[in-house]
Amino acid sequence: MSNVSSPNTAVAGAAPIKTSLSDGPRGRRPKRMLSRRNIMLYGILGVAALYYLLPLYVMVVTSLKGMPEIRLGNIFAPPMEITFEPWVKAWAEACTGLNCDGLSRGFWNSVRILIPSVVVSIAVASVSGYALANWRFKGSELFFSILIIGAFIPYQVMIYPIVIVLRNMGIYGTLTGLIVVHTIFGMPILTLLFRNYFASLPEELFKAARIDGAGFWQIYSRIMLPMALPIFVVAMILQVTGIWNDFLFGVVFTRPDTYPMTVQLNNIVNSVQGVKEYNVNMAATLLTGAVPLIVYFVSGRLFVRGIAAGAVKG
């Protein structure tokens, strides 16, 4: 006789197990993909995406057309014959005032402005934010409040005093003067971001490092920096976008030989001499906006992470 009991046989001394046909996975039922809510949500997102992508599409197809085809008037039609001559002319031949070497001169001016401005402003702001978050000193809150107030002062109010200061320093109209301006104006918001990010990190890490005898720079370089990649990406994107797209400071604090790319783009688009070449204007606009667009697409995921960690915590 077999000693194997059936699954339904009760074990001696144990309470009987109640089974039911209704037993099974519990929880909320999975939502349907084509629910009314999803249709409305994706419909709104699709309309918003179309709203922003349509001008970009018009710019791209216009920049790839010749002027005879543009004069036909159908701006939404794809080019019948693709040509890259407008792009070549926008980069190397279009007149931006007295110079007719296209956007190439302005591009390299913008690069020479961008790199030191981004590096210096982020380096100083990261150390300042780290000090304000972890090394409190007497008057640190007052200093931080004054620094943040500076972020809300309109730029136009400070243009004339800055012109006088740069002139007395002998750097007005030079790339060095514009680098100083961008570095200073980027400091308040970047310091706020770094301070909030470092304040959101576990305080036990800082205390443990202090107990082990680590100093200001050791904690900053060995503990804070490796954990701060997302907020550094946020700061880089904000500075790259703001400095590269700036027009006001570029036209005020530089001269024609040192104009950044945005100022030269304005001179090309608003030129009143000769034939209005819309394909060249569109190509020049796309070339000018390519750098911040590429930077954002390459590091967009880290940008979202850093904003969530450094802008709402602390």
Automatic annotation (TrEMBL):
Q: Where in the cell is it found?
A: Cell membrane
Q: Which of UniProt's keywords are assigned here?
A: Membrane, Transmembrane, Transmembrane helix, Transport
Keyword Cytoplasm in annotation: no
Domain ABC transmembrane type-1 positions? 107-299
Q: Which residues cross the membrane?
A: 39-60, 113-133, 142-165, 171-198, 219-244, 282-304
The answer on whether this UniProt entry bears the keyword Ribosomal protein reads no
GO CC annotation: plasma membrane
- InterPro entries, A to Z: MetI-like, MetI-like_sf
| Short name of one Pfam family | BPD_transp_1
Membrane topology type: Multi-pass membrane protein
Q: What does the entry give for GO biological process?
A: transmembrane transport
Q: Which domain of life is it from?
A: Bacteria
The similarity comment for this entry is: Belongs to the binding-protein-dependent transport system permease family.
**PANTHER family linked:** ABC TRANSPORTER PERMEASE PROTEIN (PTHR43879), GLUCOSE IMPORT SYSTEM PERMEASE PROTEIN GLCU (PTHR43879:SF1)
Task: Give the protein name, as stated in the record.
Answer: Carbohydrate ABC transporter permease
Q: Which organism is it from?
A: Neorhizobium lilium
